[in-house]
Amino acid sequence: xxxxxxxxxxxxxxxxxxxxxxxxxxxxxxxxxxxxxxxxxxxxxxxxxxxxxxxxxxxxxxxxxxxxxxxxxxxxxxxxxxxxxxxxxxxxxxxxxxxxxxxxxxxxxxxxxxxxxxxxxxxxxxxxxxxxxxxxxxxxxxxxxxxxxxxxxxxxxxxxxxxxxxxxxxxxxxxxxxxxxxxxxxx
Length: 187
What we know:
single chain
């Protein structure tokens, strides 16, 4: 995926749900923090953008996420036309360390504007280390490859990731320990 595709996904998701901003929580959030030319192929291979609607409560978030998924999700005409899909997700999709909202990276430019307008829509992307925490808690093969590629290229810092793993809520203790073991063995 490319940065312009991320920007298109942000604009589209906002238009679908009638919002000015959304949060990007999946692997493509890395495009908000790092220039795509610097990213290894493993970091941009996903052709889906995980979008978390900003809503007052979880039921509203789920409803908006379903709306995004229905219009632009996998197998949709949107995916067929553009070559990528937008997955609406809820807050329970990713395990994130405390303070993650304070570190979000703003994506807003001409590509996030309504056609012919000024930049209006904002994508708040997970900061790269918070994204790695979420990936390591899930720890599927593709998640491990994603984090390993960022570590190998020096785009993220292992010690920052480890410190953020300690800032997960207690319900994620087992996953955090598994992630720390993976991180230690990677080094």
